[in-house]
Every structure is written in structure tokens, then in C-alpha cells.
């Protein structure tokens, strides 16, 4: 008779990189994590990794999450995506990564995106006609 192994016994050998990134809540889906890995944007211990790379506690990961570069050390492995508190226990962000993230956040706060200051968007067809009429009539009235 074959007995089922508990979930934690399976994790002593390691866990796939894409699955860990998903379980640690860095990416919303496992396929998004695999896509970033496939583009060569994720490094494990300084080497570009594949999605099937086996992670172990103590590994150092470097990857980009949105516009932010992150560097985290793996503390634990989980093959299920649990609550955020549980996910935060799986990793520890390096002090350098935290400092860089805070510096970039402050820079974004002080210098917002120029496109965000536009409140009305591009002119409508009616607005363009009004502008064209205004240019036409104002130019001809100056000539007479």
C-alpha cells in the first residue's frame, strides 16, 4: 500500500522558480512569472535562470517587478499561493534593494509623469473644428 507524502516532504528537494515567484505573490499568475523568466529578467545567484530551476532556501533572486528592481533571499518554499502574510514569510528583501526601491518611489513622487497632468485628453472633432475656424477667421480679420 502506497502512502501519500505530506506537502512539506515534497519541498525538501526544491521548488520550481516560476511556482515560487507566484506563491510568494510577486506575480499574479504563474504564466506571468514564467514569461518574465523566459525573457531573461530573473537571476538566481547571479545567473539567468529558467522557469524549471529548482530553488532552495538561501538562494538570492534578482528580478524586475514592474519598474522596480528587487533582490530577495529565499527563506522558505511553498507550492501553494496563500495569504499575503504567509507569502511575506517566504522571502527577505536585501537592504540595498529596499533602499533603491524607496529612492525610486521618492523620485516618482517628486517628479510625476508629465502625461498625468493632462486633464482633458486630446481634442475632439468639434474642438478641432472650432480651432480651425478660429484660426481662419482671426487671420482674415487682421488682413482687412
Q: Can you tell me about this structure?
A:
It contains 6 helices and 7 strands, in the order αβααβββββαβαα. It has 144 residues and is an alpha+beta fold. The strands form 2 sheets. A 5-stranded antiparallel sheet has the order 3-2-5-6-7. The N terminus is likely disordered.
Kindly summarize this structure in a few lines.
This protein is α+β, with helices and mostly antiparallel strands.
Topology (elements, then pairings):
Blueprint: H1 7-10, E1 15-16, H2 17-23, H3 30-38, E2 42-44, E3 47-48, E4 54-55, E5 60-65, E6 68-74, H4 84-88, E7 91-93, H5 95-110, H6 125-143
Antiparallel strand pairs: 1-4, 2-3, 2-5, 5-6, 6-7
Helix pairs in contact: 2-3
Features:
disordered N terminus; five-stranded antiparallel beta sheet; 144 residues; alpha+beta; two-stranded antiparallel sheet
Amino acid at each position: 500500500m502506497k502512502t501519500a507524502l505530506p506537502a512539506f516532504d515534497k519541498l525538501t528537494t526544491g521548488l520550481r522558480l516560476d511556482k515560487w515567484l507566484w506563491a510568494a505573490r510577486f506575480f499574479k499568475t504563474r504564466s506571468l512569472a514564467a514569461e518574465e523568466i523566459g525573457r531573461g529578467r530573473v537571476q538566481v545567484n547571479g545567473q539567468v535562470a529558467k522557469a524549471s530551476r529548482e530553488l532552495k532556501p538561501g538562494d538570492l533572486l534578482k528580478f524586475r517587478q514592474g519598474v522596480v528592481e528587487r533582490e530577495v533571499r529565499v527563506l522558505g518554499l511553498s507550492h501553494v499561493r496563500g495569504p499575503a502574510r504567509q507569502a511575506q514569510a517566504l522571502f527577505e528583501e536585501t537592504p540595498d534593494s529596499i533602499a533603491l526601491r524607496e529612492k525610486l518611489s521618492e523620485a516618482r513622487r517628486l517628479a510625476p509623469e508629465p502625461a498625468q497632468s493632462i486633464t482633458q485628453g486630446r481634442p475632439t472633432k468639434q474642438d478641432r473644428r472650432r480651432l480651425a475656424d478660429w484660426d481662419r477667421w482671426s487671420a482674415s480679420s487682421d488682413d482687412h
